[in-house]
Amino acid sequence: MTPSSAHQDTAGEAGETGEGTRDTGPAAPAEPGHRPARRRWLRDGACLLAAGTGGDGLPGRTAAAQTLPVVAPAPAAAPDGGNPPAAASSGGGGGGGGGSSPPARLRPARVVVVGGGYAGATAARYLRLLSNHRLEVLLIEPQRHFLSCPMSNLVLTAQLPMRAISHRYDGLRRAGVELVHDRVLAIDTARRQLRLAGDGLPRPADAASAVGASTLPYDRLVLAPGIELDLGAVAGLPEATARGQALHAWKAGEQTLALRQRLAALPDGGRVVITVPPVPYRCPPGPYERASLIADWLRVHRPRAKLLVLDANPDVVSKGALFKAVWAERYGGLLEYRPDHRLVEVDGARGELRFDLQEPERADLLNVLPPMRAPTLLRETGLCGGDGRWADTEGPAFAARQASGVHVIGDSLRAPPGMPKSGHMANAQAKVLAAALVAELVAEPGGQGDPGPLPLVNTCYSFVDATRAVHVASVHGWDAAQRQYLPLAGAGGLSAAPSAVEADHAWHWARTIWADMLA
């Protein structure tokens, strides 16, 4: 399963009750000068905003005329990997001596990243690495742990504990990324500032009174908040979800453990229903991997049970031939797949699902995957055009079409044809964006400049039972004529058949990409 964002802070070890656990482990050591540096830029940013500069450090500029500040070359990173030391002042002439004080070094550009999932964590780390620590990078993520949605289907069937897909953000701190565990409430794209809930930022004692500690200026903003589950698109689903009568488990965490517990409590002969939402949604093959793994678990532990997969789409949308072959060979009589079932209502008390054309279905366990869209924050900021569901971007650096200085990557964007909403794709988009922003924002003497549009590579593994997996891969190149990324003909590929070798490859993929994002 390949969704791209981290969500619930649920990393329990023994018991795994489904309650969100606290980050009780030892905190990462603070880097020398780390906290004072944060207080300094909060103070400076607050004063600049109060002075009406819009946070770009250039007095006298109106919000409508903002441009990014020119960034002077910064010194090399400090040996500890933290922020580079401030440039030392050289001697200037005294009064009447004819000398002049050296100009103050302009601060490095500040890039704020919202969302610590596959896209956001990768972007934050690579912005620091590719800029040789010259960019100031701040990551805003409410959760204390990164929880991987890829591999979380194996938690449902108790093949993995939750801790196996839970990772700390300490590696990003070591790279010099400033982490703030907070929530963004609003974005002012004209003034280039964010308003946070304020849980993660202390108020600087000398900050201007007109600006609270929860207001953050930025030079560039990278939005990678993942997806929002549109529960309200299905009548009765918000209530059924709140009461635990229908579960989605499409954001790894509490619901993952709740669905596992409900599955373990299913009586032999019980009925399970998985509904698949209309495309586009996070992780195209994810529902079918989940169906395969649950069917494999039922085959062993509840052989008289029945699993229905009710798909809003006209057919399996990813790896269809491979999944169907496994279902027919291994799960015949246990798993039944039905396309063209668009869910319109959930009656949680009766355990009943109603569709626009087909007859209602009842089950003991409802795993309802609702329609998905970009989070409310992006829609309220005016970044989603068309049907208002996904953020519109343009150019190879995923620039927001409706706002300057803003970029959107990961599951939130309106993907071009053939581009999946997957963890690997989010990781690839983040690296391409980081390279483009570093080339633009960091003055590198003798540097290579803009690398130009870079290709995007995607790989997605899916388990079909406890020991075998399949994959699909694709390469996407920038099409200058159509101004979008498109799949390259002849690149990528699909598994010939499930195998244990592919399952081993899937594990190596997971470990490698987690290290790439967070190490």
From TrEMBL:
<protein>
    <submittedName>
        <fullName>NAD(P)/FAD-dependent oxidoreductase</fullName>
    </submittedName>
</protein>
<keyword id="KW-0285">Flavoprotein</keyword>
<feature type="region of interest" description="Disordered">
    <location>
        <begin position="74"/>
        <end position="104"/>
    </location>
</feature>
<dbReference type="InterPro" id="IPR052541">
    <property type="entry name" value="SQRD"/>
</dbReference>
<feature type="compositionally biased region" description="Gly residues">
    <location>
        <begin position="90"/>
        <end position="100"/>
    </location>
</feature>
<dbReference type="InterPro" id="IPR016156">
    <property type="entry name" value="FAD/NAD-linked_Rdtase_dimer_sf"/>
</dbReference>
<dbReference type="InterPro" id="IPR049386">
    <property type="entry name" value="FCSD_central"/>
</dbReference>
<keyword id="KW-0274">FAD</keyword>
<dbReference type="Pfam" id="PF21706">
    <property type="entry name" value="FCSD_central"/>
</dbReference>
<feature type="domain" description="Flavocytochrome c sulphide dehydrogenase flavin-binding">
    <location>
        <begin position="456"/>
        <end position="518"/>
    </location>
</feature>
<feature type="domain" description="Sulfide dehydrogenase [flavocytochrome c] flavoprotein chain central">
    <location>
        <begin position="256"/>
        <end position="370"/>
    </location>
</feature>
<feature type="domain" description="FAD/NAD(P)-binding">
    <location>
        <begin position="110"/>
        <end position="237"/>
    </location>
</feature>
<dbReference type="Pfam" id="PF07992">
    <property type="entry name" value="Pyr_redox_2"/>
</dbReference>
<feature type="compositionally biased region" description="Low complexity">
    <location>
        <begin position="74"/>
        <end position="89"/>
    </location>
</feature>
<dbReference type="InterPro" id="IPR023753">
    <property type="entry name" value="FAD/NAD-binding_dom"/>
</dbReference>
<dbReference type="InterPro" id="IPR037092">
    <property type="entry name" value="FlavoCytC_S_DH_flav-bd_sf"/>
</dbReference>
<dbReference type="Pfam" id="PF09242">
    <property type="entry name" value="FCSD-flav_bind"/>
</dbReference>
<dbReference type="InterPro" id="IPR036188">
    <property type="entry name" value="FAD/NAD-bd_sf"/>
</dbReference>
<feature type="region of interest" description="Disordered">
    <location>
        <begin position="1"/>
        <end position="39"/>
    </location>
</feature>
<dbReference type="InterPro" id="IPR015323">
    <property type="entry name" value="FlavoCytC_S_DH_flav-bd"/>
</dbReference>
